[in-house]
Amino acid sequence: MxxxxxxxxxxxxxxxxxxxxxxxxxxxxxxxxxANMNYLTGYDGWSFYVHQCVLLHQDxxxxxxxxxxxxxxxxxxxxxLAEDNIREYADDYVQSTVxxxxxxxxxxxxxxxxxxxxxxxxxxxxxxxxxxxxALEKSLPQAKFSDANALVNWVRVVKSEAEVEFIRRAGLxxxxxxxxxxxxxxxxxxxxxxxxxxxxxxxxxxxDYAGDxxxxxxxxxxxxxTKTPHLTWTEKVYQENEAVLLELSGAYRRYxxxxxxxxxxxxxxxxxxxxxxxxxxxxxxxxxETIKPGVTVEEVEEAWRKGIxxxxxxxxxxxxxxFGLNYPPDWGxxxxxxxxxxxxxxxxxxxxxxxxxxxxxxxxxxxxxxxQVTSDGYEHVYDYPLExxxxx
Amino acid sequence: MxxxxxxxxxxxxxxxxxxxxxxxxxxxxxxxxxANMNYLTGYDGWSFYVHQCVLLHQDxxxxxxxxxxxxxxxxxxxxxLAEDNIREYADDYVQSTVxxxxxxxxxxxxxxxxxxxxxxxxxxxxxxxxxxxxALEKSLPQAKFSDANALVNWVRVVKSEAEVEFIRRAGLxxxxxxxxxxxxxxxxxxxxxxxxxxxxxxxxxxxDYAGDxxxxxxxxxxxxxTKTPHLTWTEKVYQENEAVLLELSGAYRRYxxxxxxxxxxxxxxxxxxxxxxxxxxxxxxxxxETIKPGVTVEEVEEAWRKGIxxxxxxxxxxxxxxFGLNYPPDWGxxxxxxxxxxxxxxxxxxxxxxxxxxxxxxxxxxxxxxxQVTSDGYEHVYDYPLExxxxx
Lengths: 392, 392
What we know:
Two copies of one chain form a homodimer. The first copy, chain A, is an alpha+beta fold.
């Protein structure tokens, strides 16, 4: 399987990355973020608990994959790279206290004669530790290091047609995932059993498209826990008149289509919940209406803020971000943040996840929209009612 | 829920950590690794895609949790910490290009007057980026930084009785998980549907114990992919006479009990597979026989290596590691590596995952043992036959 996209698609990604490197005077890029590694080479393995990277030189050949010996066959199976561009380090580098895998990376850089230029590294991406940086810096005294944080992430922001198709497939899975949650969550059911139904739908996918693991496990906050995002599930059983926040996604070949909804288990949701839901849905609608090429990200947020200004709802955190290809811990891309000050200009085939979650001490409310910027507006990447779900 | 263990247990963990800090002359520890944060405070949230930490001073009070504003309620719900020890940063620190969350952390350190001593940071833990280090260093010019990598990990190596109980519960789930895989994997079934059955068993758990998400998703390599570990699943259907490698775990409240087996779908497994299985099982048995307090980790590996010396099987990578509490991307603890040179002396209540995987270009074989070191030997943390599983 030489990558899941065409060779032309990978070449185009590499080309765009090199253009950004040129703009910043970077000769060699060291890519450790797993989604960025996948984006440039197709590499797809759960090996990111050890150090690994992709090297991309400005003007020499295809990218190189460097990783642990036992993962080299994984690189052979999932990338389009030539054998000479798959380099493996010995196992005694793994979690060693006397040597660091980045010393091996530095050796390859020197072997290729790439150690005298400007080397871009992803300084604030998880999976690039301080020790990794220190080992490179020490081993490559002639190099000049430059912060290339999120450089590839920003190439990823505008999706190809093939990527759009993958996200749409993820969207089909997301619809099934939310249906599974809706069906499973009932008074008297354990939260863990509902989570199991959700995971089953996520991994199984549709008849046509196999599900993949989302970069974030099901976030499912019930009752008291609706005062916060980012918790998972417990052994507790759902109670009558409890709200349940669901932050989920389908995934198809590492591409996501996040979906968030709130379920209330009872006939009479509290006024605070329904009022909040109404305001948030109205504000979300205003934000969506503004989305089209040429608009800035902060204008989208401004429309939301103005849309809820008549209410008592206050939202201090960003209302969304860019999404697509990713690995744990995040399906967000660490590029666009939908908040004041983000002056990114929207372009067709950007993907925005708008999720203006509200977490009061009494109850929370979450709803979202995962949308593709189109040539003249936006489209949802899946079809699911925008509402507070009431199960009585 | 003031943490899931007793206050005494958390106090004991903090005390042991402080002893290690004293041994290295560390005044203040900045803990970013999510399992280490959980270990010291109980904090359990999927918020580790943004910067966060726990601060532990050598001689002042309980630990402090510092994180994103929207996650502070999660800290209130899952930790035992006093309100004053939960500190939240504003949302515009998140993935900002103009300021870093570690600047907020530095402000708190200065406020507490902790900026003039030796500050230990986890230099090679994922979730502690180079930028995080650089921001701390720049903001705290009077501090001296010391590498406290894996300091808390090493405290975690010896489990309390309560932790042993949690791992045993995870083990009960692991048995169900492997049964689910065994039942679901059949000729003609899509790999993704088998993965869905596995995930369902993982999250659902047992009647008495809710499952939690393992730190690694199901690794399920079939057919050609058995030449490598660390791949997940695809849309392909299982074929007659295919081997399937399974690297799975149950999890209970973030504690693991890894379980790996190999299934062959057919009556007549190839000779290479059965021969390898026999040798590996024999070597594993020899390694297990050596396990008891006072033995060094490298002696365990040596017993394995001698046990297979009569065969053609060669294993260049470590045959296992310490496991327990963890978050993605790894259920291993980044402490013990079962390989030559690891002179760690075994103690009761250490947990070892022995997984001498073999990946030939033709076919692979995986089997494992997750064991607790006891006062005079070892015990498996779950009960599952050590064999090549043949499904004809």
